């Protein structure tokens, strides 16, 4: 099966998808080791299961296992996290116009910020020469690098013109208000709702990012400004939920239409950690923060739980109970691809929180999202129609090839219908002249050379002609504007043979000599079309005439044959429409009404026509004799 185009793959991806949940177990911290904590959580070899060993009363041990899409142990480094979590797949989707969300949850000090941002608020230190610690880069820095690389590849390797633009925003939800981390002087931002975007933060600063460094600058600024506090469990504890969003718009062009825009979005959500006041010993302002953090996480838990039970929509799921859940609506049960990283400490002393996080993750696994490309309704319709056209063209071409017909596209691009190709009722109305031949045939020569089946081309031509209303309606026909001498020659010829030349299209190569070289006398004497054709062929060879293919009718006549059986196809259809009131015809003699028209082809095609294997002039042939 042929590979689907990016546009096709977009549409085909529009199906429901579960939230992917991974667990990351960090190493025991120095403090935990000093405190003599044991390692109670391990990642099993299957790479998916987290095993928790709980000490009961006495020597009783309880082992519990939790299975996820993946489970990474304390030795997994940042590289492996990026790879095992298949982040690249999500980023590719963003470039195709999807929303993707990566969220890190877990108790305080469990490694959420380390996973998302790396060590020391791990913004990649690309700007600070000498401080490059790429190994420690978190998912955000790695993702941004990948996006830029991928955009470069996509724009330079693609035939299709595409333009990507990236903008970044960074905000935090702190004490039930939204702060723009890129504009500390600004008052808290409002969260609004629109039918198109759902809940969104109003008036957020979106920074245009043309380079990697632009995004890193945003990350540094945001990380510096987020609320951090110090407590017993984490000296750099995030006191807010932070959401960094990359808006990746892609414009691409189909045909001559206005560009189609897709609005990809990548959300990195670093949730504040839940904490037990008894352990964190928070007090004062921090106590209030803790209350708000725990409250919003509790609401998040309710939302996750409702969604995992199959409840859907704003009414059934308590999104509106906190700012965080409002802003996560698209990521949880919405149209975003989503990945949750449940971060846990392996310490036996943190077991309650770890179990709570693992339950959280287990619930989240059941949430089903319906990812879809973000684009304007008009663009969606245009794209759908374009895809439909592509599909129909493929189907048409398959059917045509099965029927042995020419590829319509090939013909359409190579031939235009000459307006003077009219049905001929010759001698009944004066021949009209047109000033210029506008029959384009050069493309046909190419097609003809490459494609041995002239029959196919003629069939296609005939179809094109059939579409031209004039062909049937015009009772006269037009010829090209020949010089007077030529015309008189032609008239001579017509008088002499009692036949008209129904339609002759010429190119610049046509000249007086061309016609004077045609041996009419000989053709008439020969009473054989074959000989006439030969004389024409000589003429063509000698003089470079583009060529004439005469459409000879006779489908309703007994013993019908034309120049050959093969090219008859191109004529029959026409004749059925144009020859209603014809007189009966006899072999070798044809009434005027029998003429069906002509198709001009270039020299190559014409010569090919003359060389068709089926012999001309069969006994039963019903042809013109010039
Ligand atoms: N996988 C890991 N490998 C090495 N060190 C880690 C790992 N995960 C976390 N750490 C270290 O543990 C400490 C706490 O991690 P971090 O600040 O990321 O926790 P957190 O979950 O974001 O906490 P909070 O919710 O309080 O902000 C940090 O010093 C961090 O460097």
TrEMBL record:
Residues 18-367 form the Kinesin motor domain. CDD domains: KISc. GO terms for cellular component: cytoplasm; kinesin complex; microtubule. GO terms for biological process: microtubule-based movement. ATP binds at residues 106-113. The keyword Coiled coil does not apply. Keywords: ATP-binding, Microtubule, Motor protein, Nucleotide-binding. Pfam families: Kinesin. Residues 423-444 are annotated as: Disordered. GO terms for molecular function: ATP binding; ATP hydrolysis activity; microtubule binding; microtubule motor activity. Belongs to the TRAFAC class myosin-kinesin ATPase superfamily. Kinesin family. This is Kinesin-like protein. It comes from Marchantia polymorpha.
